[in-house]
Every structure is written in structure tokens, then in C-alpha cells.
């Protein structure tokens, strides 16, 4: 029995990261659908951003106060400026751009297009010289080809629509009634200019998020308090988002009124599940299996969002969207493979250096010991 239980524990330990990432992607897919459904039903996007970040800060703040009460570093003026920039990039710019683009397109299209984030991040890192491209190496070729293929997938999705792919639930009643289909912002109901504008908004959102990731990694080196950093970013983002909303809406109080409906569910779900629960789950898995393992599950969210969006929001999925999704996913995995090879070589180099240092130190000790004799 002990052997069986021990083997069962080993299997459970191996399976847990996969289960965690599947649950995480399901949570993100739900956020895409719930948020865009609420926005298309009339909720103000600026208010949604503010409430979402307030909910996230409220959930994470107690955890930050408890777990980081002793090891929290000092907040210098330079770190404060970086946190302020992070708050502008992610809560204010990235979320608002994404919600605007999602309203003009669809949840499934937006989640598919967001798979270009690794490619944009890689290009930004090249420009900032935080990443090097060795085109002579296979891993460098994989990253370059993956980036180009990802961009090609985006272009294909924008230029080619194709026929609507019919799912069996399209013929069912319930959520797929005439009103929902008329309200859907799919390829057929939205004008080409509106769809293109939404695409540019989502690409802009992905660019802001990529810049956020690069600056966040830099900030964590000098301020390694992840929970506190998240609370500060969400709090500052909520304040600045509220200021933006007041300027846009000219001080109107009507958009801020929410009830016990989707207007409350969307910010609470997005803040608690996606900015709270997923934060810990993703962090734990990333420490154990690395960032490449986490990124490899992104296409799963794309599939879940497409299915949920077509069933709940009556979004039409076209052949062009499916082809583009396959192309983008192929480019993503090529890019991730190249990054994985870089990480393996880097870890091997660090291990070699540590062994060399240990050997040199051992030689010095032997020399000292021999001299004393």
C-alpha cells in the first residue's frame, strides 16, 4: 500500500502543473467572455478597469501585508517611478485598449490575437538589446521564423474572413436567439473599418502588455516583493483609470452605478480570479516548470474562449480565424522552442561556471595545504 500511495503521489506531483495550467486558462477564457459580454451590454469600459483593479488590490493587499511584512524592500524614488510607469502600461493602457478592441471585434478574435504577445516581447527585447539573435544557430532561426510566422497569422486573420464555421449549437435555442446574433460583433455584423480598428486596438494592447512584462522583470530585480508590487500597480492604476474616466465622461456619476448583475460580476471575477487566484497559480507553476511551460498553454485559452464565445455570446467563428489561429499557434511554439533552448544552454553554462569556480577554489585550498606542509 505504501508503494502504491508513493507512486500515486509521484503521479499527482507530475500532473498538478498541467491541471493548474488548464484551470488557469479556463479562468482567463471566462474573463474574456464575461468582460466583453458586460461591455457589449452597456457597461463603461473605464469603470470596469477601475473596479477590476480595486478588486484585485483588495484581495492581494492582505496577502502582501502578511507574507511580505519582513522582507519588503525600501521604496526608492526610482522604483516609485517604475511602478508608476507599470500602472500606466497595464491597468490604464493595456486593459482599456483590449476592451475597446474586444467590443469592436469578438472575444474569440481578441484572445486569438493576443497570442502575438511573446513575439512582440521578443522584438522589443531585441530593440532594447535585452535579447540577442544568433541567426546561425538553430534556436535563433526558430525564434526568427516563429516571430515571422506569428505576424503572418495576424495578417491572414485581418485580410481573410472566409465562410462561417457552423457548430451544432447554432441551431439550438437558448442563448442563440435573434437578438444575441444581432448584437454580436462578429465578422459579418461589424463593418470592415470597425473590425480593422478593433484589430489595431488589440495589437496595441498586446504591445503595452509586452512593454509591461519587460519593465516588470527589470523592476523586480530591485524590488523583489511581487505581492506588494502587484498591489501598488493595481492601486495606482485604479486611481489613474478613475481620473481618465472622469475626464472622458465629464464627471458623470451614472456609469459608476452597478447592481447585482454582470456589472458586478465582471470586475470581481476579473480582479479576483485573473489578477488574484491566477497570480499565485502561475507563479507556483513558473517556479517549478519555468516560463516556457506556462506560455505553452496560451493556445488552450484561445480554443476555450472561441467555444465559450460562440456558445454564450453567439459569436461567429470564420474559417479565416481558424486558419490564423493555427498559424499563430505554430509560430508561438517555434518561438517558445527557441527560448527553451536558450534557457537550457544558459543553465548549463551557469552550472559549468559554478563547477569551475569550485574546482579553482579546491585547487587553491590544496596549494595552501601543501605549502603549509
UniProtKB/TrEMBL annotation:
Subcellular compartments: Membrane
Assigned keywords, A-Z: Membrane, Transmembrane, Transmembrane helix
GO cellular component entries: membrane
Transmembrane region(s): 18-39, 45-67, 79-101, 107-128, 140-160, 195-215, 227-244, 264-280, 292-313, 319-338
Keyword Transmembrane helix attributed: yes
Main subcellular location: membrane
Recorded topology in the membrane: Multi-pass membrane protein
Source organism superkingdom: Eukaryota
Keyword Ribonucleoprotein: no
Any one Pfam family match given in the protein's UniProt record, by short name: EamA
Family under the similarity heading: Belongs to the drug/metabolite transporter (DMT) superfamily. Plant drug/metabolite exporter (P-DME) (TC 2.A.7.4) family.
Name of protein: WAT1-related protein
Amino acid at each position: 500500500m505504501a508503494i502504491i500511495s508513493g507512486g500515486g503521489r509521484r503521479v499527482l506531483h507530475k500532473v498538478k502543473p498541467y491541471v493548474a495550467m488548464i484551470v488557469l486558462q479556463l479562468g482567463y477564457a471566462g474573463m474574456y467572455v464575461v468582460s466583453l459580454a458586460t461591455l457589449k451590454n452597456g457597461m463603461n469600459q473605464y469603470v470596469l478597469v477601475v473596479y477590476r483593479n480595486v478588486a484585485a488590490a483588495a484581495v492581494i493587499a492582505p496577502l502582501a501585508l502578511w507574507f511580505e511584512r519582513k522582507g519588503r524592500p525600501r521604496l526608492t524614488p526610482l522604483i516609485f517611478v517604475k511602478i508608476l510607469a507599470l500602472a500606466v502600461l497595464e491597468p490604464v493602457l493595456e486593459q482599456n485598449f483590449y476592451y475597446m478592441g474586444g467590443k469592436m471585434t469578438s472575444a474569440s478574435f481578441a484572445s486569438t490575437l493576443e497570442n502575438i504577445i511573446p513575439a512582440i516581447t521578443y522584438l522589443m527585447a531585441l530593440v532594447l538589446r535585452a535579447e540577442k539573435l544568433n541567426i546561425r544557430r538553430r534556436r535563433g532561426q526558430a525564434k526568427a521564423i516563429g516571430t515571422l510566422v506569428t505576424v503572418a497569422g495576424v495578417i491572414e486573420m485581418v485580410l481573410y474572413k472566409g465562410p462561417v464555421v457552423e457548430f451544432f449549437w447554432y441551431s439550438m435555442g437558448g442563448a442563440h436567439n435573434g437578438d444575441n446574433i444581432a448584437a454580436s460583433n462578429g465578422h459579418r455584423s461589424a463593418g470592415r473599418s470597425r473590425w480593422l480598428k478593433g484589430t489595431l486596438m488589440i495589437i496595441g494592447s498586446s504591445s503595452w502588455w509586452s512593454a509591461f512584462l519587460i519593465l516588470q522583470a527589470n523592476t523586480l530585480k530591485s524590488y523583489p516583493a511581487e505581492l506588494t508590487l502587484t498591489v501598488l500597480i493595481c492601486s495606482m492604476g485604479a486611481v489613474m483609470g478613475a481620473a481618465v474616466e472622469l475626464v472622458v465622461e465629464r464627471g458623470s456619476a451614472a456609469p459608476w452605478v452597478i447592481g447585482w448583475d454582470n456589472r458586478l460580476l465582471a470586475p470581481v471575477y476579473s480582479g479576483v480570479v485573473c489578477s488574484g487566484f491566477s497570480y499565485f497559480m502561475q507563479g507556483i507553476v513558473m517556479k517549478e516548470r519555468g516560463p516556457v511551460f506556462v506560455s505553452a498553454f496560451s493556445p488552450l485559452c484561445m480554443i476555450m474562449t472561441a467555444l465559450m464565445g460562440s456558445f454564450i455570446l453567439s459569436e461567429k467563428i470564420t474559417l479565416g480565424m481558424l486558419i490564423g489561429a493555427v498559424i499563430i499557434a505554430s509560430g508561438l511554439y517555434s518561438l517558445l522552442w527557441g527560448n527553451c533552448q536558450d534557457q537550457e544552454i544558459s543553465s548549463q553554462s551557469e552550472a559549468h561556471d559554478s563547477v569551475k569556480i569550485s574546482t579553482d577554489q579546491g585547487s587553491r585550498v590544496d596549494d595552501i595545504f601543501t605549502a603549509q606542509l
